[in-house]
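Technical annex, item 7. During the second reporting period the consortium partners agreed on a shared format for inverse folding records so that results from different sites could be compared directly. Each record opens with the tokenized structure and is followed by the designed sequence. A conforming record, contributed by the partner at site C, is shown below for reference.
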């Protein structure tokens, strides 16, 4: 039979009431009830028998405060003890406020513990029994080191309990402790939210771990945890961190806003996750290292600051039906000797490569989708990866790249809408391709680089912007039943020394079927172009759509003009006169005149057998658009031809797109081809600063610059290079490579045209086309140029020519309304033919 013991201050509680809680406990028998009147009771209680302490007037009315210097307010030494609706204050936040000894048992219900932790100690060995603790609808707050510490053979359950404001770890499990937590809310800890050590066990359900200073959930040693329908938010380090040989199983959990990686699995730990999401991680979404393993099914990883999934060491990752979206680096990145298996996974909108495999890692992709990344799939490991029935769409650069020395097997892959080449097999790489499609790529469908010899069967390449299949020097391989349709360049391009074998290949509706360089050795067996047999050494079949070809070989694009295309001899004085007739450009005319005189002297010294002084003919033209840079460059080449310092004096105008390739190893040959066309004349590089962007990184423009520097040295007497662009940007360009400053010794500054000079340009255009400006039109035109904004869209001479064109169009509309216009009316450009300033 249960006996009720009342505790109340003197004068309250009636006859028989105890004046202290300790007195009531000592008088109680096992199973008795101690009812406590409202107030703060400064006592250090020891519960050594099965008693229940309860607040007479409900939660918050009774406070048990530890006396100064005492270790705990409540110490439990007996089984089946309970506290209901009571607040416990500890004397020191770093010490236990409630301490449960080994073998004891405690239920806390509707209680608060403040200023100290709840510490539960169980037996050290399995035979020592267990210590049982239950907390229901409790709040633990303001402790230091730990809010709840379960050590040894403890069996604990938390229901609807909050742990908050801990200067340390929220909940610590060690030894063989086990905890079943349901609807736990753990917030604001300076250390980890929950930490498991030893062989402890955790089951977490419908809970929230938020605002931890370190890991949200940390598992060490041989611990195990299961978590379902729980959230881990804004952890100061990893969201969930497994190390040692720990095991964790997560189901329908949400990990968001971790300052480090969302999920970390290290050493020999094992993680299994199903239906989970990881978002906004400050590092990786999933990081697996050492020999750890991670299995994820139906999970999402969004917006990671590093690679969404990163594997290193000998780690193993298996992802099925998972989604990766957004992220500042790779979607999946495998290094070391790691193994990654992706099945029916989707990767979209990552900043770098969708799937990157490096060192000796191995990837197996089946039924996956990669979209919107910079590159689709990059295989850089020789260990042998496999990609099957996988789609790569909308990449900014290469769809699939097999890097130097790497090995991969591709089966049924589809590459669509790549911003550069669809498939690139780099130098010495090993690749087998069985079936699949490459569609709508801006570059070539498939690129095979030097020393690579892939085996390609049944691949369909449709609408490539360049070649269907491009083979670089010394490349080879076997291409069986490959189809190329609607290629913008020759469907098959074979460079010098390349010896591919094409069997049963079909070319349809292409600009040209086959392009070869001198020394190419392709073998064609049963190949056709629009139904006509295709053979090497004879002209390629005319495409059925009658579109003109792009040249029978790539070498034709780089070939310089022959002697029959030599320009006629021109008189030096006539050319100088042509220069001085140009509108404006007084400073440029003076500089060019000085250069001509200097070169005349050089030429005469050479003819007299005297050594020529050191002279760099290469120039920088710095000026805004439309200031005549191209016109002067063309004249400069003709002047040098007249001086006998250039063979031909012709001008080859290029920009970044003509020099920089779209994949590794393409830039050097492309730059060389453009340079070769300019031999004997002038290579004019417009917007040259774009070859050295301010934030270059791995930009291929730096390779173009290095190639140019070497070619300028190798052909210093047979070419002139003029680099042109905005004045401010050209200084950065010259400083981007040490060899540029020594080769470009002189800069010509092209100043913006004055209003009167722009009027002269319009008058010059009018004279060429037999128009005349009326005096009023000339005056109004001058005013228009005076007030015209000279911002980014201002084109100097180009703007003047555009205005002339607009004036002729307006004049034509005006004259068309006249019944019988006179000859004077037909040639006159009047003031109201000028465009209104608001339309500019």
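Designed sequence (site C submission):
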């Amino acid at each position: 039979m249960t006996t009720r013991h009342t505790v109340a201050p003197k004068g309250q509680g009636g006859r028989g009431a105890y004046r202290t809680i300790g007195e009531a406990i000592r008088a109680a028998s096992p199973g008795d009830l101690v009812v406590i009147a409202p107030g703060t009771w400064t006592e250090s209680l020891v519960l050594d028998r099965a008693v229940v302490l309860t607040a007479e007037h409900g939660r918050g009315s009774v406070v048990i405060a530890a006396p100064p210097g005492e270790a705990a307010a409540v110490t439990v030494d007996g089984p089946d003890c309970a506290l209901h609706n009571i607040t416990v204050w500890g004397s020191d936040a770093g010490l236990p406020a409630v301490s449960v000894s080994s073998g004891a048992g405690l239920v806390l219900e509707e209680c608060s513990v403040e200023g100290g932790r709840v510490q539960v100690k169980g037996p050290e060995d399995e035979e020592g029994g267990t210590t049982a603790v239950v907390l229901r609808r409790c709040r633990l707050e303001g402790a230091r080191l730990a809010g709840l510490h379960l050590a040894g053979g403890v069996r604990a359950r938390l229901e609807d309990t909050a742990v908050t404001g801990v200067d340390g770890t929220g909940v610590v499990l060690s030894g063989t402790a086990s905890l079943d937590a349901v609807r736990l809310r753990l917030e604001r800890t300076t250390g980890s939210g929950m930490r498991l050590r030893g062989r402890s066990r955790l089951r977490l359900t419908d809970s929230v771990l938020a605002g931890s200073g370190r890991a949200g959930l940390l598992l060490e040693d041989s611990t195990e945890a299961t978590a379902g329908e729980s959230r881990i938010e804004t952890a100061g380090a990893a969201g969930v961190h497994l190390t040692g040989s720990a095991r964790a199983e997560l189901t329908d959990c949400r990990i968001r806003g971790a300052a480090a990686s969302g999920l970390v699995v290290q050493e020999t730990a094992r993680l299994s996750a199903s239906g989970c999401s990881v978002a906004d991680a400050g590092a990786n979404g999933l990081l697996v290292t050492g020999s750890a393993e991670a299995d994820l099914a139906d999970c999402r990883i969004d917006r990671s600051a590093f690679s969404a999934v990163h594997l290193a060491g000998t780690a193993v990752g298996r992802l099925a039906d998972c989604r990766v979206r957004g992220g500042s680096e790779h979607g999946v990145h495998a290094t070391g000797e790691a193994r990654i298996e992706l099945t029916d996974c989707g990767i979209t909108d990552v900043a770098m490569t969708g799937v990157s495999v490096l060192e000796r890692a191995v990837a197996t992709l089946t039924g996956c989708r990669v979209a919107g990344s910079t590159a689709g799939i990059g295989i850089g490991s020789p260990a042998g990866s496999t990609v099957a029935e996988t789609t790569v769409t909308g990449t900014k650069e290469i769809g699939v790249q097999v890097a130097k020395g790497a090995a991969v097997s591709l089966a049924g892959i589809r590459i669509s809408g790549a911003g550069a080449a669809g498939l690139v097999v780099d130098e010495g790489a090993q690749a087998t391709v069985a079936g699949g499609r490459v569609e709508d790529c801006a570059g070539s469908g498939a690129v095979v680089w030097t020393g690579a010899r892939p085996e390609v069967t049944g691949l369909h390449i449709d609408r490539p912007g360049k070649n269907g299949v491009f083979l670089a020097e010394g490349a080879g391989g076997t291409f069986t039943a490959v189809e190329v349709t609607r290629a913008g360049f020759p469907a098959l391009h074979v460079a010098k020394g390349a010896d591919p074998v094409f069997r049963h290949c079909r070319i349809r509706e292409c600009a040209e079927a086959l392009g070869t360089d001198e020394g190419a050795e392709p073998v064609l067996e049963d190949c056709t172009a629009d139904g006509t047999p295709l053979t090497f050494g004879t002209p390629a079949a005319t495409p059925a759509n009658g579109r003109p070809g792009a040249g029978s070989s790539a070498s034709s694009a780089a070939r310089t003009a022959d002697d029959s295309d030599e320009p006629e001899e021109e008189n030096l004085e006539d050319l100088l006169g042509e220069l001085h007739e140009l509108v404006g450009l007084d400073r440029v005319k003076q500089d060019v005149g000085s250069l001509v005189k200097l070169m005349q002297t050089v030429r005469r010294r050479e003819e007299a057998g005297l050594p020529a002084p050191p002279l760099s003919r290469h120039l920088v033209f710095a000026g805004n658009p439309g200031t005549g840079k191209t016109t002067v460059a063309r004249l400069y080449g003709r002047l040098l031809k007249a001086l006998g310092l250039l063979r031909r004096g012709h001008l080859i105008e290029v920009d970044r797109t003509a020099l920089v390739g779209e994949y590794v190893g393409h830039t050097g040959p492309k730059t060389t081809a453009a340079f070769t066309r300019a031999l004997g004349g002038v290579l004019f590089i417009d917007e040259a600063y774009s070859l050295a962007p301010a934030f270059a990184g791995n930009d291929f423009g730096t390779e173009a610059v290095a190639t140019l520097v070497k070619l300028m040295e190798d052909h210093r007497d047979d070419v002139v290079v003029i680099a042109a662009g905005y004045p401010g940007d050209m200084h950065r360009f010259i400083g981007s490579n040490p060899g540029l400053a020594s080769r470009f010794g002189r800069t010509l500054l092209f100043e913006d045209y004055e209003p009167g000079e722009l009027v002269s340009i319009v008058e010059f255009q009018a004279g060429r086309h037999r128009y005349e400006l009326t005096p009023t039109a000339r005056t109004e035109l001058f005013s228009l140029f005076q007030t015209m904004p000279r911002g980014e869209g201002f084109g100097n001479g180009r703007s003047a020519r555009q205005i002339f064109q607009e004036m002729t169009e307006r004049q034509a509309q005006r004259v068309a309304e006249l019944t019988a216009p006179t000859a004077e009316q037909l040639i006159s450009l009047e003031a109201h033919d000028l465009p209104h300033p608001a339309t500019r």
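The longest helix spans residues 586-607. The radius of gyration is 41 Å. All partners now use this format for quarterly exchanges.
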